[in-house]
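agent> Task received from the user: take the single chain below, predict its 3D structure, and emit structure tokens. No templates, no multimer pairing.
agent> Plan: (1) validate residues, (2) run structure prediction, (3) serialize to tokens, (4) report one or two observations.
agent> Step 1 OK, no nonstandard residues flagged.
tool_call: predict_structure(input=
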Amino acid sequence: MEEFNLAGREFVELNNLLKLTGMCPSGGTAKLVIGKGHVTVNGQQELRKRCKIRSGQVVEFEGQQITVIE
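)
tool_result: status=success, residues=70
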């Protein structure tokens, strides 16, 4: 499991999180996989591409997990 530090931000948008962590090569690719229902947030399928991900949430894609921390 990987951690992503918000570094003083309140949230990060889901598509940007996937891009910033290298889970997707671009924001466009991230939007496609989210739209197809391949991403979960806290175990629930998430279809909102710009969903606000906050500290404590866990994002999963292709068997990889990211825990968002402050």
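agent> Step 4: summary for the user.
The first helix runs from residue 14 to 20.
agent> Done.
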